[in-house]
Amino acid sequence: MKRTELRRTTPLSSGGIQSRERRKKRCKVCEVMFTPVRNFQTVCGEIACAIAHAPANQVRARKALADLERSEIKVRKEKLKSRAEHLREAQTAFNEWIRLRDGDRPCVSCGRHHEGQYHAGHYRSVGANPELRFEPLNVWKQCAPCNTHLSGNLVNYRIALEQIIGAETVAWLEGPHPARKYTVEEIKTIKAEYRAKTRELKRAAA
């Protein structure tokens, strides 16, 4: 008698047992309901949960989750920053670079070397000439007394500038300049640029 192969009418799982829909479980780490892909799966598919659930990785898991949280907070704060905040940060980065660039120079106005605080002093002020706020030829290392208490000590500042960059360039600084309204993206680029330049100077000095 000819033998006939038995036909399966119900699909089987890879283990030969009839497959059925798995019941949802609650993740032991984040407590979110999920559908397991394995019988003994106790955490959801998130990598952070899988790491945190492994006893051998508890320390690394806590650090990874803390780093992730700090990163998310940083991203949220960055999105909430105003244009003025971005501008202040860019100015701080630029000023730090100026002080490092002129590290071996004395104060541009009084010509003194001293142990006090130094600023990045603008020859043409940011308030009167905002278009020159990030112009390196307009900003030089200046001691706090000259910048703060002598309003920039501009007469001596100008004399020194003529010796450093020449009378023609000083005249260009003092001349008219087109108005400049930086966009947020331009400000971010300036901030990144001068932070990178500062790192380069620090590496060179190390």
Short summary:
It contains 7 helices and 4 strands, in the order ββαααββαααα. With 206 residues, the protein is mainly α.
Task: Label this structure with key terms.
about 45% helix; about 210 residues; disordered N terminus; mainly alpha; two-stranded antiparallel ribbon; about 5% strand; 7 helices
Reconstruct the topology from this structure:
Blueprint: E1 25-26, E2 33-34, H1 47-53, H2 58-80, H3 83-101, E3 118-122, E4 139-143, H4 144-149, H5 154-165, H6 167-174, H7 184-205
Antiparallel strand pairs: 1-2, 3-4
Notes on the structure:
The chain is built from seven helices and four strands. A hairpin with a 6-residue loop joins β1 (25-26) and β2 (33-34). By secondary structure, it is mainly α. The longest helix has 23 residues, at 58-80. It is elongated. The chain has helices at residues 47-53, 58-80, 83-101, 144-149, 154-165, 167-174, 184-205, and strands spanning 25-26, 33-34, 118-122, 139-143. The N and C termini lie far apart (92 Å). It folds into two domains: 25-80, no CATH class; 83-205, no CATH class. α5 (154-165) packs across α6. The strands form two sheets. A two-stranded antiparallel ribbon has the order 1-2.
